[in-house]
Amino acid sequence: MNQQLLAEIGRTQRLEILNTLKRTRGLSVNELVAKMKMSYMGIKQHCLTLERDGYLDTWRRPQKMGRPEMVYRLTKRTHDLFPCDSNQMTLDLLESAKEIHGPNAPDKLLFNVFERKTTRLVERVKGATTAERARWLVKEREKEGFMSQLLTDEEGGPQILECHSPILNLLDQYPIVARLENDLVQKVLGTEARREETRASGLYECVFYFSLGSDVPEPALAGTAEIAG
């Protein structure tokens, strides 16, 4: 966690506001008051300070009736406050691999890393059903800093929602990572999954939609020939 940012933010209540907003698409002051049990004016003042310092911005959330509601949300500047598994050194190593071993080297390395990680998870996964394995995987991803939770949507079906990525810099530089993450989830759950990502201002959401019925066809990690070639 970035110590300089922590020093700038200062008060514990401001960190609590940022942590609360991180798992949402944005909240109004009244919604923050309800979640945090603080006074309206106290929350409002902290939000104004965080907005002034570049940690929050606002947008107008449409309402079914009446005027849009002003909602606070995180900016990109807050990303370094949350767990990060990779940094500039990781990117530098992958770039060096490209220079030494050719343009496909970073993808090959990332594929190998995810393949090994997937194997470890599959060996440890607990649960006789897809739903049980999904609950187990959510707990594991939460430990890794993905801010993961299991949701049930009557229209969209079951889904794993993640509000943070500790490997966001890899996702930005290497698109293959998104596919490898999806392959990992499919193999651990033992069923088809579809990954969708949303970003806006400082918002990051990744949803894995999955089926409770079908099995993933072999091979478990798709694209081996394409990456190895």
Give your account of this protein's structure.
With 229 residues, this protein is of the alpha+beta class. It has helices spanning 3-9, 12-22, 29-36, 40-52, 88-101, 105-124, 130-143, 168-173, 176-189, 224-228; strands at 56-61, 69-74, 148-153, 157-162, 193-200, 203-210. The protein has a four-stranded antiparallel beta sheet, with helices on one face. It has a two-stranded antiparallel ribbon with strand order 1-2. A hairpin with a 7-residue loop joins strand 1 and strand 2. Helix 3 crosses helix 4 and helix 6 runs parallel beside helix 9. The longest helix is centred in the middle third of the chain and has 20 residues, at 105-124.
Short description:
This protein has 229 residues and is an alpha+beta fold. It has helices spanning 3-9, 12-22, 29-36, 40-52, 88-101, 105-124, 130-143, 168-173, 176-189, 224-228, and strands at residues 56-61, 69-74, 148-153, 157-162, 193-200, 203-210. It has ten helices and six strands.
Strand arrangement in the largest pleated sheet: 3-4-6-5
- SS-derived structural category: alpha+beta
Which H/E pattern describes the elements?
HHHHEEHHHEEHHEEH
What's the number of helices?
Answer: 10
- Give the strand tally: 6
What characteristic shape results from the CA principal axes? globular
- Structurally, how many domains make up the residues? 2
Biggest sheet details: 4 strands, antiparallel
- pLDDT averaged over residues: 87
CATH architectural category of the largest domain: 2-Layer Sandwich
CATH topology of the largest domain: Muramoyl-pentapeptide Carboxypeptidase, domain 2
As a whole number of angstroms, the C-alpha radius of gyration is: 20 Å
Give the % helix. Answer: 40-55%
Poorly predicted segments: 215-229
First and last CA, distance: 38 Å
CATH class of the largest domain: Alpha Beta
> Which percent range describes the beta-strand content?
15-25%
